[in-house]
Amino acid sequence: MEAFFLFFLVFFGSAIGTSVKIVNEKNEFLVERLGSYNKKLTPGLNFTVPILDRVVFKQTTREKVIDIPPQSCITKDNVAITADAVVYWRIIDMEKAYYKVENLQSAMVNLVLTQIRSEIGKLELDQTFTARTEINELLLRELDISTDPWGVKVTRVELRDIMPSKAVLDSMELQMTAERKKRAAILTSEGQRDSAINSAQGDAQARVLEAEAKKKAAILNAEAEQQKKVLEAKATAEALSILTEKLSSDNHAREALQFLLAQQYLNMGTAIGSSDSSKVMFLDPRNILSTLEGVRSIVGDGALDEGLEAALDKVDRHRAG
């Protein structure tokens, strides 16, 4: 009797111990009773019926990651590449995750590989490198829809490496080299064109500035020449006025003037005689001044005025000396 009682206590204690289930935070347990789904155990202290109840599935609801191995894919332009990815996901419905699919992890990996092949097959090789963000978004949307019946939420999909074959890489390298040479040639030609344009513009501006400088110089020379003539005319007029006053009061000055006019007259005769159109002149030395009027009609007023101006200059120098 005592042995039976002891056996009953041991059996009852072990049954009580197995019926108490403690579930950690972010974990959930599925319990079956006599082979059928009974309930889900949430974090905390839970109790089950000994012998009748059995925990069949334990899983976390935290986010998990699946590392997708490198997979061979064919692009739209028939180029073979290798791509791998990482997928972040979590279980949102524990019952579906256990009863809707037999091996959730394996199903997820195969589904991701299939979707990667499908999406890359829609793109050309160049697009796979430039449209990686778009590919990630498409994979995320498609995987989230496909895994919804399994009680799974795909939170993020990232393609890590997209590697073409060695032959394709060599071809891409040659293409990139040719493109760089093309860009360098274009930049060089544009630089030469800009340099030629700048040189032409500089030459044109230099010619304009030179022409403006010559124009200003010619204007200044003309103004200076005009001012010179005005000053010479004033000086001549003043000299004649002074000479007239001197002649009226000084007999020596009058005689000197007659001498100088006669000398200038002789010099003028020499110049006229040496010219191409020579003239015959009859000169009376005793009356040079009376002859000047006759010379004026032959050579004109200009030559006589020049002789007069030279005579005036000599008179001034004589008076100053």
Q: How many individual β-strands?
A: 8
The H/E string reads HEEEEEEEHHHHEHHHH
* Total domain count: 4
Q: What's the number of helices?
A: 9
- Globular, elongated, flat, extended or rod-shaped: what is the shape? rod-shaped
Derived from helix and strand composition plus strand pairing, the structural class reads: alpha+beta
With strands numbered from the N-terminus, the spatial order across the biggest sheet is 3-2-5
Membrane topology: Single-pass membrane protein
Keywords: Membrane, Transmembrane, Transmembrane helix
Protein name: SPFH/Band 7/PHB domain protein
InterPro entries: Band7/mec-2_domain (IPR050710), Band_7 (IPR001107), Band_7/SPFH_dom_sf (IPR036013), Band_7/stomatin-like_CS (IPR018080), Stomatin_HflK_fam (IPR001972)
Describe the model.
It is a single-pass membrane protein. Belongs to the band 7/mec-2 family. This is SPFH/Band 7/PHB domain protein. This protein is α+β, with helices and mostly antiparallel strands. The chain folds into 4 domains: 18-60, no CATH class; 64-170, Band 7 domain (Tetrahydropterin Synthase, Chain A), CATH 3.30.479; 205-245; 250-320, no CATH class. It is 63% helix and 20% strand. The chain has 9 helices and 8 strands. The protein has helices spanning 2-19, 94-99, 104-120, 125-130, 132-147, 166-249, 251-274, 288-299, 301-320, and strands spanning 20-23, 27-33, 36-41, 44-47, 53-60, 64-74, 80-91, 152-164. The protein has a 3-stranded antiparallel sheet with strand order 3-2-5. Strand 6 (64-74) and strand 7 (80-91) form a beta hairpin. The longest helix has 84 residues, at 166-249. The model is unreliable at 294-304 (pLDDT under 50).
